[in-house]
Specification:
- The complex is a heterodimer.
- Chain A is mainly alpha-helical.
- Chain A has a domain of 210 residues.
- Helices cover 77% and strands 3% of the residues of chain A.
- Chain A is built from 14 helices and four strands.
- In chain A, a hairpin with a 2-residue loop joins strand 2 and strand 3.
- The longest helix of chain A is centred in the N-terminal third of the chain and has 27 residues.
- Chain B starts with a helix and ends in a 14-residue tail after the last helix.
- Classes of the chains: A mainly alpha, B mainly alpha.
- At the A-B interface, helix 5, helix 9, helix 11 and helix 13 of A face helix 4, helix 9 and helix 11 of B.
């Protein structure tokens, strides 16, 4: 039964570009991109209890890395570009994570918030590389002999990457590292007392999270095709937080569901920009007061 | 640079710093009582400023009365918010309250945009625009007025914390909640009172800064600088919040003179990252011992 449902879901995901109008294919691509960010943020916030307000900054670094690489080396195949975007962002995550390790909770949240502002300031001012506020047009992604020029082709790229990232995240939870993450989430002090090197694992979580977000940033660059610093403001970071809180902290599928709901909601509220934060704010408050585990906990309760 | 210009920059830095200090104080007052940071503090002071604007424009009240109305409205809002959505979540982890206040800040900002406007509005000032001569230097009355009003409010806060029953109760709860409860202090009343007091202090900051930065739904972002100031001084320390605020204001005003324009706007954030990396407990902070 469950297998049949999974199979049906997989078939629907694969057939989507054949069934849906182009705009909805684009929307589904955005869902996949945001799902990768949400899973990445969840590795940090859901598993090791560190809130980040700076993931829009990581996304921007990944996106600009991919865009600039493609501009300078147009022949590079997409998977390598995405990997490079992830690695560069992961390295930035490492550089930020090591000093921030000494901070807990609130201070880390504020440091990441500051980091997000510094990144957008930096992009605005690195004119030579990023064209500052004028924005950067991203060339089409290339995969060997093909250029990914249609919405459908970019959808399959995002879907393949998202599927790989989901699988990897599901597997992390079953490894020694994943168990260490969960132990830290339950109680950092108890985990340390039991021999878990909390500092090391928190760095790993931070770097992994940045890597995921960087890869998603690369995808974002190719999917949207145009980058400008104001797209990566702090409110985007807040959107990512809404995704994982709505989906349920610590659940991979919850993050995917949260990303889907928030992305679609964002799109359907495009005409009601002034009401959008009102609704997202209400979602955050309602989740915390009434459904602390988010969507993931709701389905768990039913089964 | 000439000495007079330097004095001018430092004084206007101190004025900005006073505002940061007030915002930092309001964040720390809530934190000391409830161990939670109110992410909506900036949006609450924005509401205060908007209400003051309406009271003056729509209701035609004289400016000082209108400003008081705004500050009072902030207090009422904080009291209601604390009772309705913060208190039920306080027993949970501090993340819950943080995320609730984050949601609240989104809602307040959107609501202000709907009720009032998303445009920037000029805000009337109590102080004139003509520079006054103090000895050899000419200073803006706005700077001096902001500094004077802030110092008066800080003095009132010191008196409140030192000399009143409620102030002592707040300090007791900040030190040890359980012990305070055992001594017969109503911790719940301290929660309410702290939210109210913080909103009043923040509201004063809001109506003082609005003439300088314009009134807009974005003015809540000043809370980030307030937070940086509080961290600089050592989060949880009231004198630290004041010193941190002044320091940040002066640094922020001096930095553009010595730094390239590119990183000018990043200065408060770089200061925050720097202080967090070098000395996370700030200038006056104490390390908190944590238990399972």
């Amino acid at each position: 039964m469950a297998l049949a449902a999974w199979g049906l879901g997989a078939v629907a995901a694969l057939a989507w570009p054949l069934l849906a109008p182009p705009y909805f294919v684009f929307l589904a691509t955005l869902v996949a991109v945001n799902a990768v960010v949400a899973i990445g943020l969840n590795l940090l916030s859901g598993y090791t209890n560190q809130l980040s307000f700076g993931h829009a900054g990581f996304l921007a670094i990944g996106a600009y890395t991919a865009a600039i690489l493609t501009l300078r080396a147009p022949a590079l195949p997409v998977p390598l570009t995405l990997l490079a975007a992830g690695l560069v962002t992961g390295l930035v995550g490492l550089a930020l994570g090591i000093p921030c390790l000494r901070l807990d909770g609130l201070y880390l949240a504020m440091a990441t918030l500051a980091f997000g502002f510094v990144v957008t300031e930096g992009i605005t001012n690195l004119d030579a590389l990023t064209h500052g506020n004028d924005g950067l047009r991203v060339p089409l992604a290339r995969l060997g002999p093909w250029t990914l020029a249609t919405d459908g082709s970019r959808y399959y790229l995002a879907l393949a990457v998202a599927a790989a990232m989901i699988l990897a995240a599901l597997n992390v939870a079953g490894t020694r590292t994943g168990r260490a993450f969960l132990a830290i989430r339950t109680s950092e002090i108890a985990a340390q007392a039991s021999g878990v090197n909390a500092a090391a694992y928190k760095t790993v979580a931070f770097v992994l999270s940045a890597f995921y977000t960087g890869v998603a940033g690369g995808l974002f660059a190719f999917v949207v095709g145009f980058l400008s610093p104001d797209a990566f403001d702090v409110f985007l970071s807040v959107d990512f937080l809404v995704m994982i809180i709505l989906g349920g902290l610590g659940s991979v599928w919850g993050a995917v569901a949260g990303a889907a709901v928030v992305t679609v909601l964002n799109d359907s509220l495009a005409g009601l920009q002034t009401y959008r934060p009102l609704i997202f704010g209400a979602i955050l408050i309602a989740c915390m007061l009434f459904v602390p585990g988010g969507l993931a906990a709701m389905t768990r309760r039913q089964s | 640079m000439s000495g007079q210009a330097l004095v001018h920059v430092v004084v206007s830095g101190l004025a900005t710093g006073c505002i940061y200090a007030l915002v930092a104080l309001s964040l720390v007052i809530v934190y000391n009582a409830t161990r939670a940071v109110n992410f909506a503090q900036g949006e609450m002071l924005m509401v205060s400023a908007f209400v003051a604007w309406s009271a003056q424009r729509a209701a035609g009240l004289p400016l000082p009365v209108a400003l008081l109305c705004g500050v009072a409205a902030g207090g009422v809002l904080a009291f209601l918010v604390e009772r309705a959505i913060i208190r039920p979540a306080l027993s949970a982890t501090h993340w819950d309250v943080l995320i609730i206040t984050l949601g609240l800040s989104l809602m307040l900002r959107a609501a202000a945009g709907i009720v009032w406007t998303n445009e920037e509005l000029p805000f009337p000032s109590l102080f004139s625009n003509h520079p006054v001569a103090v000895g050899p230097v000419r200073l803006a009355p706005v700077s001096l007025g902001v500094i004077g009003a802030s110092l008066a409010l800080m003095a009132a806060l010191v008196a409140l914390f030192r000399a009143t029953r409620f102030g002592r109760a707040m300090r007791a709860v900040a030190q040890n909640q359980n012990a305070a409860r055992l001594m017969g202090i109503s911790v719940e009343r301290v929660y309410s009172g702290s939210w109210l007091l913080a909103a009043v202090v923040g509201g004063v900051a809001g109506v003082l800064i609005a003439p300088v930065t314009f009134l807009s739904t974005k003015m809540g972002l000043i809370a980030i600088n307030g937070f940086t100031a509080a961290v600089l001084g050592g989060f949880g320390s009231l004198p630290g919040a004041v010193v941190g605020g002044m320091l940040l204001g002066v640094i922020e005003n001096l930095a553009p003179l010595y730094l390239p324009t590119g990183i000018r706007y990043s200065v408060p954030f770089l200061v925050m990252i720097g202080i967090l990396v070098a000395r996370p407990r700030g200038l006056f902070g104490q390390l908190e011992r944590r238990k399972v």
